[in-house]
C-alpha cells in the first residue's frame, strides 16, 4: 500500500505544472474591467455631446465659448466687482461666481458659530436652555430649506417699511424693505499704514498663539491668547490711524428720491438667503456637535474636574479638542451641502451664479452645454476646495500613534 502511494506521489511530482490562465489573475481582471468601464463611459459622454452639438447645428445655434466676449446688456443688483450693462457675458460669470462665494462663506461662518452654540446648549444642565436648543433643532431641520428662504424673504423682510419710513439708528443705519444701509469708511491718502499695521497684528497673533501653545505643552502655564490677540488686532491699526493723521472719513447713507444713496448696503435677497442657509444648516451642525461631545469618554471630564478645571475650561481644553476628530468629517458634508444649496437663491432673485449665468445668460445666448458645464465646474471646484481645506485641518487634529 505504501509503495503504491509512493508511486503516485512520484508520478505527480514528475507531471509538469499546468500554466495558470491569465484571466484567472484577479489583478489582471480588475484592470481589464476598469479599462472597459472607462471606455464605455467616455463613449457614452461623447455620444451625448455629439448628438447635442448636431442638434444645435441643425437649429442654427453656434457652439463654443466665443459668447463670453459679447456684451451682456442686462444689469445685476449686487456686484462685488465693477459691472454694468456694457460688460461681457464673461464678466457676468465672475459676478455670479463671487456672489455665490460670498453667500457660501458668510453662511458657513454663521452656521458654524450658531451650530456649535446650539449643540453645546443642547447638553446644558439648564433645562430651559437645553429644551430651547432641542426645539430649535427639531423645528428648523424638518422644514424644507426653500420654505425657510421664502419665510425670511416674503414674511419677514418684505414686511419692513418703505425707505421713507425706515427704521433707523441716528444717521448711520437704516433698515427698510430695500435692505440695510449703514456708514461706509472711505480710506484716503496715507491710510496704507493702517492696513500694514493690521497685517502686522495678524502675524503677531499667529506667532504668539503658537508660542503660547508650546509654552502650555512644556510648562502647563496658560496665556490669555484671545484677549492679547484682540488687543493687538484692534490696538495697532488704531494707533496707526491716529499717527497717520486720521486719513479715514465716513460716508453716510442719504435718502435721495425713492432710495438711499451712499454707504454700505445689504440687499434683502442676500440677507434672506444667508439667514435661511445658516439657520437650516446650523440645526444639523448642532446634532453633529452634540454627538461628537457625547462620544468623548466621561472619564475625561471627571479627570479635568478633579484637577480643578472649571466647566468652561474643561469644555474648551479637554472635551472639544477630542470631539473635533469626530465632528470634522460630517461637518465637511454640511459645508458642502450649504454651498450647493445656495443655488436656491434663484427662487428669490439673488444674483448668484445659477441666476445670472445659468439663468439670464443661458436664456439670451442659448449656449446650454458650455454654460451648464462651466456652472457645474464651479460648484465642483468649490466643493473640492472645501473638502481639501477640511481634510488638511482633520489631519492636523487627528491622533498620531507614537
Automatic annotation (TrEMBL):
Signal peptide: none annotated. CDD domains: TM_PBP2. The chain crosses the membrane at residues 31-49, 61-81, 93-121, 142-160, 192-212, 224-246, 266-286, 371-393. It comes from the Bacteria. Residues 97-390 form the ABC transmembrane type-1 domain. It is found in: Cell inner membrane; Cell membrane. It is a multi-pass membrane protein. Gene3D superfamilies: MetI-like. Keywords: Amino-acid transport, Cell membrane, Membrane, Transmembrane, Transmembrane helix, Transport. InterPro entries: AA_ABC_transptr_permease_3TM, ArtM/GltK/GlnP/TcyL/YhdX-like, MetI-like, MetI-like_sf. Belongs to the binding-protein-dependent transport system permease family. HisMQ subfamily. This is Amino acid ABC transporter permease.
